[in-house]
Write a structure and sequence with these properties.
GO terms for molecular function: histone deacetylase activity; hydrolase activity. It contains 11 helices and 8 strands. It is of the alpha/beta class. The chain has an 8-stranded parallel beta sheet with strand order 2-1-3-8-7-4-5-6, with helices on both faces. Strand 4 (152-156), helix 8 (163-168) and strand 5 form a beta-alpha-beta unit. Helix 6 crosses helix 7 (134-145).
């Protein structure tokens, strides 16, 4: 059965400037339930992840200041969020969604987190609407707790480079980081992933899918991962306000289908996190994300 992490506080209300991009966390599961792609039985509600699991990835001093509201003004501005206890509860709950999703993917082949993909969070700081790095935390959890997982591949197809993830795993040979992103997009200063594929502004469906198709299959053969984390950001859409690429919704769907069929064919468990999406029309964001869940249901179950 398809397992999907979702909690009501994923859509925790924020000040007016932040509300629009957060609505997808509420509307996406509603859409999937309404159309019958999933039922309530597919949803599981994560809980705040214990600090011990978070501290495999994040520095104790940073985490202590984060949870106690003692970040400096500059640090808070870098995250893009005003601090609140509810925000921290949301973040550590998202972490559990990805960790528990990983446990379920080991049993069923795939699991998804309606949130997650917080790839701009470094071990010692947050950036770009990311406070704690859920895929990094979950990868460290698997390496520590699951003896069958010895090699992990992170496939980051959000339009922004996964700079925090690249930094966290720079000296970790068991985790291979692959980021395919807009060359001129945020962050201005890129970190070095194990493999980076920077894309020109306006990259269209054919170019994007051709590059991905030429890169990912040999990468799987090279890395031989026991587990994959997939960041399926829909900010690659031409309609996205922050993305600057040229993909259509159909191109984005084909991207997800390619990745998920590849994981399925190779029998490598995968957790999918949603990442970014900032199109002017909310329907473009929700429908593009919904396609990822529809494909997971169709391919695996």
């Amino acid at each position: 059965m398809l397992s999907i992490a979702w909690a009501p506080l994923y859509a925790h209300p924020l000040p007016a400037g932040h509300r629009f991009p957060m609505l997808k966390y509420e509307l996406l599961p509603e859409q999937l339930l309404r159309e019958g792609t999933i039922s309530e039985a597919n949803l599981f509600q994560p809980t705040p992840l214990p600090a011990a699991d978070i501290l495999r990835t994040h520095r104790p001093d940073y985490y202590a200041r984060l949870v106690s509201g003692q970040l400096t003004r500059a640090e808070e501005r870098a995250t893009g969020f005003p601090w609140s206890a509810q925000l921290i509860e949301r973040e550590v709950t998202i972490l559990d969604g990805t960790v528990e999703g990983a446990r379920r993917a080991l049993r069923h082949g795939i699991a998804l987190n309606v949130a997650g993909g917080t790839h701009h969070a470094f071990a010692d700081r947050g950036e770009g609407f990311c406070l704690l790095n859920d895929q990094a935390v979950a990868a460290h959890y698997l390496l520590a707790q699951e003896p069958t997982v010895r090699r992990i591949l992170i496939v980051d197809l959000d339009v922004h480079q996964g700079n925090g993830t690249a930094s966290i795993f720079r000296d970790e040979p068991r985790v291979f980081t692959f980021s395919m992103h807009g060359a001129r997009n945020y962050p201005l200063r890129k970190e070095e992933s194990d493999l980076d594929l920077p894309l020109a502004d306006g990259t269209d469906d054919a170019t994007y899918l051709g590059l991905l198709g030429a890169t990912l299959p040999p990468l799987l053969e090279q890395v031989q991962p026991d587990f994959i984390f997939y960041l399926a950001g829909v900010d690659v859409l031409a309609t996205d306000k922050l993305g600057h690429l040229g993909l259509t919704r159909e191109g984005c769907r084909q991207r997800d289908e390619f990745v998920l069929r590849l994981c399925h064919r190779h029998a490598v468990p995968v957790v999918v996190c949603m990442g970014g999406g900032y199109s002017e029309r909310l329907v473009d964001i929700v429908e593009a994300h919904a396609n990822t869940f529809r494909l997971a249901q169709n391919i695996y179950f």
